[in-house]
Specification:
Largest sheet: 6 strands, mixed
Strand content: 15-25%
Radius of gyration: 22 Å
Distance between the termini: 51 Å
Helix content: 40-55%
CATH superfamily of the largest domain: P-loop containing nucleotide triphosphate hydrolases
Shape: elongated
Structural class: alpha/beta
Number of domains: 2
CATH architecture of the largest domain: 3-Layer(aba) Sandwich
Order of helices and strands: EHEHHHEHEHHHEHEEEHEEHEHHEE
Strand order of the largest sheet: 8-6-10-9-12-13
Number of helices: 13
């Protein structure tokens, strides 16, 4: 179990975490800032200069998950983790990685009025210096913008006027009640190349349906991993029924098959896209979302999809649209057609 304390600088996360470990038997403090310090010491300055924050490094997000896994193999848990996460895609990657390893997360937002936050940041200036104060004040606007998703993902606790001990006592009560639990689909991480099947659905404007997973960053096509011994087209039918409540009368036609090369730590594999056809207004109205797996869906035109999808997924979509228009399936390698 991980008890993740989120919030702006000055909300009292670190002080409350230090108190909370005394109230929860077996708990241990795990501060991901230590992972960041290690990367700053290990990575070349040129690489660090390419990002605004250490959290933007994929290595930081992977190491946070791997370090938590290693600690929980040594300790009874839970881990009390004070760390600001303002980008939802970072939350998805880290919490999703923990979920694949069967590690549950209780997500708490320590919130405070801006006047309190500014006062607490000012108090830290004596110890951390003016540069740290300016950086923390600059992050307040990002925190305000992140509240739109944090409010629905966390158990919110107002820390304005609370001492660290009082905050920890309220957190301990909330932990005991099971507040802040983040239900995320728990699928084991792949140990070899995978075969995945997705389905493209379209509206009356020929926009494509995309879904927003809770367990990994970025938008995706409806679908999932093909089970051992399962025909890919049948897996596509099963996945869209489970994810969206869409029941296809027959197995859909293939649009593209794409070989995705391994890029450690990802294993790659074959990615298939099928044509689910056009959805009328009634079927769109019946779309369902499993909260543990998807948080949203939307139809996107091709130019919108380019901004929403990773480069590899968008390349796959672009060729799938061409295959649909030409009425023939295309064979791709790393998003590039073979023999076209």
């Amino acid at each position: 179990m991980i008890i993740w304390l989120n919030g702006a600088s000055g909300a009292g996360k670190t002080a409350a975490a230090a108190e909370l470990v005394h109230l929860l038997p077996g708990s241990t403090l795990f501060d991901p800032a230590v992972v960041g310090e290690g990367l700053r010491a290990l990575l070349p300055k040129q690489r660090l200069a390419e990002v605004d924050d250490v959290q933007d490094l994929p290595a930081w997000r992977r190491l946070v998950v791997d370090t938590a896994v290693a600690l929980l193999a040594e300790l009874p848990g839970p881990l009390v983790t004070p760390m600001t996460l303002l980008r939802q895609e970072h939350r998805d990657e880290i919490f999703g990685g923990l979920a694949t390893r069967r590690i549950a997360v209780q997500h708490f937002l320590l919130d405070a009025e801006e006047t309190f936050l500014r006062a607490r940041i000012d108090q830290c200036t004596v110890v951390d210096g003016e540069a740290a104060r300016s950086r923390r004040l600059g992050l307040l606007s990002g925190y305000t913008a992140a509240l739109s998703w944090l409010a629905g993902d966390t158990y919110r606790l107002d820390t304005s006027g609370l001492t660290p001990r009082e905050t920890a006592e309220r957190l301990a009560e909330a932990v005991g009640r099971g507040d802040g639990m983040c239900p995320i689909v728990q699928t084991p991480p792949p140990r070899a190349e995978t075969l995945a099947a997705g389905v493209l659905f379209f509206d009356d404007q020929d926009r494509v349906l995309l879904v927003d997973p809770t367990y990994k960053p970025g938008w995706e096509f409806p679908g999932g991993v093909v089970e051992p011994g399962e025909p890919p087209a049948r897996a596509a039918v099963r996945e869209v029924a489970e994810e969206l409540g869409l029941h296809l009368a027959q197995e859909p036609p293939l649009l593209v098959v794409d070989w995705e090369p391994p890029r450690p730590p990802r294993f790659g594999g074959l990615r298939l896209l099928f044509d689910g056809g056009r959805l009328d207004a009634d079927r769109v109205g019946d779309l369902l979302l499993p909260g543990e797996e998807l948080r949203g869906w939307r139809f996107a035109a091709e130019d919108e999809a380019e901004r929403m999808l990773s480069p590899g997924r968008f390349a796959r979509l672009r060729w799938a649209l061409r295959a649909r228009a030409e009425g023939r399936a295309l064979n791709l390698q790393a998003g590039v057609p073979v023999g076209v």
